[in-house]
Specification:
It is a single chain. The protein has one domain: Orthogonal Bundle (MetI-like fold). A two-stranded antiparallel sheet has the order 1-2. It is built from 13 helices and two strands. By secondary structure, it is mainly α.
């Protein structure tokens, strides 16, 4: 039997080129994700939509989304207006891209705030157990009983007075146009309010996963080596519970977008002349009999984003599942 050879030089052993290199969990997960066509298609579509929303609006050829042209209202798609105009003569394609920036940022930032709080609370409760677990879960039960929508509205109303000062500070710091910053700083109270109160479900999901993982042999081995609780949680338990977290995040982003549309309808979210996909869909539904394109085009962008996130979430769940990792 032929044995693998090695070259020894200066007291250093260099393995043969045929020796297999080690694979990490993340490299194996990436390889599995690449072979998932649905997930890769979802990632490509989602990336294209994000690029369109965050790059195309800065091109000078794109019409101003707030510019009105009443004689040209409710026009059909043409070379000057690729998706037609709305009831005030504003370019629908430009409004969709500008509104997409706000909707995507609301979904991403709010979900990150929610995940940060929920994962921390769920991981601590599931790992420590006992009185800590009971206290944190009873707190979650109490928060579940509170009227979520009313609390978000009250918090947004109380914090809205500080957003003007924040906008002035950012304009002076960056030198950007106030109209480019105001739509996003005005939504910061909304980000914090929704994210700080929407972590309840993910905390229960993470708690259940951590309780299951904490009793396995590799965690007991880490404890026997004297590793700290923080290191065990961050290096051994939470990475093995990443699958449900990723799936929950991909499902939370679209739901947050819809919730933002509800608040905007109540006057607590995006304010005119700015818009979001939720506002555009709501306006299109109100005028679908006179101009159905106002509903069709924003809905297409929103549906594609929703499907892309779902496909990507399913692919990430399968790729990051430790049970399917390479032996």
């Amino acid at each position: 039997m032929e044995k693998s050879r090695s070259i020894t030089a200066n007291n250093a052993t260099i393995p043969d080129a045929g020796t297999d290199a080690g694979h990490s969990l993340w490299s194996d997960a990436w390889l599995r994700l690449r072979h998932n066509r649905a997930a890769m298609c979802g990632c490509a579509v989602l990336g294209l939509i994000i690029l369109m929303c965050f790059i195309v609006p800065f091109l000078p050829a794109l019409p101003d989304p707030a510019q009105q042209d009443l004689p040209g209202k409710n026009s059909t798609p043409s070379w000057s207006h690729w998706m037609g105009t709305d009831h005030l003569g504003r370019d629908l394609f430009s409004r969709i891209l500008h509104g997409g920036r706000i909707s995507i940022l609301v979904g991403l930032i709010t979900t990150m705030v929610s995940l940060t709080i929920g994962v921390a609370v769920g991981a601590v409760a599931g790992y420590l157990g006992g009185k800590v677990d009971a206290f944190l879960m009873r707190t979650v039960d109490i928060l579940y009983s509170l009227p979520f929508l009313i609390i978000v509205i009250l918090f947004s109303a109380l914090a809205k007075g500080y957003t003007s000062d924040l906008t002035d500070w950012l304009v002076g710091l960056t030198g950007f146009n106030r109209d480019a910053i105001a739509p996003f700083t005005g939504l910061i109270p909304l980000f914090v309010a929704i994210g700080a109160l929407s972590w309840l479900s993910i905390s229960r999901i993470v708690r259940a996963s951590v309780q299951d993982i904490a009793g396995r042999e590799f965690v007991e081995a880490a404890k026997s080596l004297g590793l700290s609780h923080r290191r065990i949680l961050m290096r051994h338990i939470i990475p093995n519970a990443i699958g449900p977290i990723v799936v929950y995040a991909t499902l939370t982003i679209p739901s947050v977008m819809l919730f933002e549309a509800t608040l905007s309808f109540l006057g607590m979210g995006v304010q005119p002349p700015y818009s979001s996909w939720g506002i555009l869909i709501k306006d299109g539904a109100d005028r679908m009999l006179s101009n159905p394109l106002l509903l069709i085009f924003p809905s297409i962008f929103f549906i594609l984003t929703l499907l892309s996130l779902n496909f990507l979430g399913d692919g990430l769940r399968d790729a990051l599942d430790p049970k399917s990792s390479k032996d």
